[in-house]
Design goal:
By secondary structure, the protein is an alpha/beta fold. It has one domain. Helix content is 51%, strand content 20%.
Length: 241
């Protein structure tokens, strides 16, 4: 597991792999995190580049028109949802926080390929839309600050909750494993040392593929993604009356 809770904070791992000839750094991220986490990550990536590493990263590539995107996603995608969550919880979303450069290589799936998954892809998009609507309702009923505090306190449990819901587990497994394979293949084809920026939930699967191709993990470094939030939860019910 590339996520851990320590003293009320949530940490994310960076795993360093080597096959004796070159190095691969899997820089794990939590898609919404403290600004300090993103500042540190941007500095680390710049440091890798100074050492001659090439950079690869996760982001579903949008190769559709605006009209096609609106039609298939119903106006809600992962970036939009994460940005909404981050704004409410006083955190920063990955899409706004990482300084993506033109010479970096996107090694994620294309949206057109994603849609070929058919029913599963549409179902995942429907879940995103439902989550966005539910979040709006919670804010309306409980207040933005209240919901924001609970979001920060509950972030560390999100992977567990997703795993415990059978349908979510099935969808996430399909999506994660498919994208893990794409990311790992790009790393194996690359020349020289590489740093690859991917969500923490992908690190184990990508690492497994690397290990099956002659790499071994040399080290793991932890960075605090969401700091400890010392706020006593309100005891009154979310909806009064």
């Amino acid at each position: 597991m590339a996520l851990r809770t320590r003293d009320g904070a949530m940490d994310v791992a960076t795993d360093i792999y080597s096959n004796g000839e070159r190095f691969v750094a899997l820089a794990g991220v939590c898609h919404i995190a403290d600004q300090s986490f993103w500042d540190n990550l941007n500095k680390r990536i710049a440091g890798y580049e100074d050492m001659g590493y090439s950079v690869q990263y996760e982001r579903i590539r949008n190769d559709l028109t605006k009209e096609e995107v609106a039609k298939v996603k119903g106006g809600t995608g992962t970036s939009e949802l994460y940005e909404k969550l981050a704004e409410i919880a006083h955190l920063q979303a990955q899409s706004n926080a990482i300084t993506y450069l033109d010479h970096w290589e996107n090694t994620d799936i294309a949206m057109s390929e994603w849609l070929k998954l058919g029913k599963q892809a549409r179902e995942m998009m429907a879940i995103l839309a439902e989550m966005s609507t539910a979040l709006d309702t919670l804010v309306k009923l409980g207040g933005k600050e209240r919901v924001g505090r609970d979001l920060r306190l509950g972030l560390r449990w999100m992977p567990v909750v997703q795993h415990l819901i059978p349908r979510n587990r099935e969808l996430n497994s399909m999506v994660i494993e498919l994208r893990n394979k794409i990311a790992a293949e790009a790393l194996l084809k690359a020349e020289g040392n590489v740093v690859s920026i991917w969500g923490a939930g992908h690190l184990s699967g990508i690492g497994k593929i690397l290990r099956s191709n002659g790499f071994h993990r040399e080290s793991r470094v932890w960075s605090t993604a969401v700091s400890r939030y010392n706020v006593q939860r309100l005891q009154e019910p979310l909806v009064q009356g």
